[in-house]
Design goal:
- It is built from 13 helices and 24 strands.
- It is an alpha+beta fold.
- Strand 4, helix 2 and strand 5 form a beta-alpha-beta unit.
């Protein structure tokens, strides 16, 4: 039975504190909460849903669908916040999670279940025909799944750090994103119906994962921590590594990018695992949908759950007031980005902004210079003792701008560093790296990271690209990589560093180097300096 209760004094007090801390507009109304509504699906599953109901006439309905339960932070950060500003809010647990019935089949179930939820919504007397969706990460994917066939009631979507292509998220580099998706599978499977029991189970799963990384193969790592449904879905992902495999059809929502014409607000983070997809979503939608806007902050994937709220919550309310409630408010800039290093926000008419190229060449003396050098430098990658993952754009809590000094002291990592900068250098856009490579084994990976080295010698990554090479270059070959988008200022007194390696374990599954089943072979890399260059996009306004 669904229960209904009014928001009492403690809830209102916490709401007032949230309003003050986040700089939100004033509360409009009181609200009630109906919990554990049962929304039916076409195959008779029931999706548990909490309804936050404002008093008086509502300003539209916001749908949030999540596998992570209906409690903190979504109940406070979105449910209560939006209801207090006059919006009906539905927070729904997706199939097989937090009390919703049916078997969880991650990602592939969301298109039909979202449509069934909208069909149920149409039968509710309080629904006035105005719908927007909101959510981040998996909840972002759940929106893309719905947007493949958007209902006529949909007025817009706010998608934060949400992928539209799950195959690319798992295998987009050519290598399995092992730690991100094994960790996700283990913790989601462990959470059960949530609560303290679920939290304890998730902590236990994380302890098991710490031991799993010692296993030599992804299959063995998965077998040590997963069982039941989670073992099945993760096993299927392992069995289908190829991008053109029809298995992945239901894991892709690319058609939505080509036809969605309602307003869409995309929110990303410079240190988010899905940033490439967020930028691609904006650029593809912008070709035919001028109502798409993009915000990128100095955030990791996990930051968007709470840390980013000071920016995201006021923007979400402004966006809903304009596009769902129909208020006549001033439009925001198409692109708003945080300029890391400069610690400022920039409003732009589009992404990327016009830029010129600044080329930097690696040199034999370890410098990164303004002219090409001759010669060859090299390193050796051993899959039995793989280069460890340190920071970067992934889901883990220890992502982002972790100091790389210790990593850069390893023999399997090369670095090239400029002299101390006498003037600041702004880099806004997607850098590129060309590497003249040869290797001595049939399989090889490349990991390229430009870093900012501060006055104390701390080395923090700015952007990166990891790639499993389709054909290892046994003869001299030039590899061109487009690195992830960034907007960073290298300050006066800092240095620009190019970091090269061939692994980041367990973030990416180790490359065995050999065709021998179950075998490992160390790979020797030779980097030709004359044909290797890092190219930085420098905005024209700073020339």
């Amino acid at each position: 039975m669904a229960a209904s209760r009014a928001a009492g004094p403690p809830a209102r007090a916490l709401g007032a504190l949230h309003t003050k801390v986040m700089g939100l507009p004033p509360v409009r109304t009181r609200y009630r909460v109906r919990t554990a509504l049962r929304v039916p699906t076409r195959d008779d599953a029931e999706l548990l849903t909490d309804h936050y109901m404002p008093e008086g006439e509502a300003r539209g309905t916001v749908l949030i669908r999540s596998p992570y339960g209906r409690g903190v932070p979504v109940n406070w950060m979105q449910g209560r916040m939006l209801a207090a500003r006059g919006y009906d809010v539905l927070v729904q647990s997706v199939r097989g999670t937090a009390g919703s019935t049916g078997t969880l089949r991650p990602f592939v179930q969301e298109a039909e279940d979202a449509q069934d939820t909208v069909a149920w919504l149409r039968t509710q007397r309080w629904f006035d025909g105005r719908l927007a969706t909101f959510g981040g990460s998996y909840s972002g994917w759940a929106q893309w799944a719905l947007l493949q066939d958007p209902p006529p009631e949909l007025r817009g979507a706010v998608i934060a750090v949400g992928p539209h292509d799950i195959q690319k998220a798992i295998y987009g580099t050519g290598a399995l994103a092992l730690s991100d998706f094994l960790t996700w599978s283990a913790t989601v499977a462990a959470q059960g119906d949530g609560g303290l029991r679920g939290l304890r189970a998730q902590l236990a799963a994380r302890r098991q994962l710490a031991a799993a990384w010692a296993e030599l193969t992804p299959e063995a790592a998965a077998a040590s921590v997963l069982e039941g449904d989670a073992a099945d879905w993760f096993g299927e992902w392992l069995d289908h590594p190829d991008a053109d495999d029809p298995f992945w059809t239901d894991y892709r929502a690319d058609p939505a990018l080509d036809h969605v014409d309602v307003p869409v607000l995309l929110v990303g983070g410079w240190h988010d695992v899905f940033l490439d997809q967020t930028v691609h979503q904006y650029q593809t939608l912008r070709r035919h949908n001028q109502s798409v806007t993009l915000t990128i902050g100095p955030w990791t994937h996990m930051d968007t759950a709470a840390k980013a709220a000071r920016v995201m919550d006021p923007q979400l309310l402004r966006w809903l007031d304009r596009h769902l409630a129909g208020d006549r408010t001033a439009p925001e800039a198409p692109v708003r980005i945080h300029h890391t290093g400069a610690r400022t926000w920039l409003d732009l008419p589009d992404w990327p902004p016009p830029a010129t190229e600044r080329a930097l060449w690696p040199r034999r003396d370890g410098r990164l210079g303004t002219h090409p050098d001759q010669g060859v430098v090299g390193f050796r990658y051993d899959p039995a003792e793989p280069t460890p993952a340190v920071g970067g754009r992934h889901i883990a809590t220890k992502s982002a701008t972790v100091d790389n000094q210790k990593l850069e002291q390893r023999a399997d990592v090369l670095t090239f560093t400029t002299h101390v900068l006498t003037d600041p250098v702004d880099v806004i856009g997607s850098p590129t790296a060309e590497l003249e490579l040869t290797v001595d084994q049939p399989h090889a990976d490349v990991f390229v990271r430009p870093c900012d080295v501060d006055r104390r010698g701390h080395s923090h990554i700015i952007t990166e690209r990891f790639a499993r090479l389709r054909r290892a270059p046994r003869e001299v070959t030039t590899i061109r990589l487009e690195l992830g988008a960034c907007a960073h200022r290298f300050a006066t007194g800092h240095r620009v560093r190019l970091q090269l390696s061939a692994g980041a374990y367990p973030r990416f599954a180790r490359n065995p180097g050999t065709d021998t089943p179950g075998g490992f072979a160390a790979v020797t890399y030779q980097v030709g300096l004359a044909g290797s260059v890092l190219t930085l996009p420098v905005p024209k306004a700073t020339q």
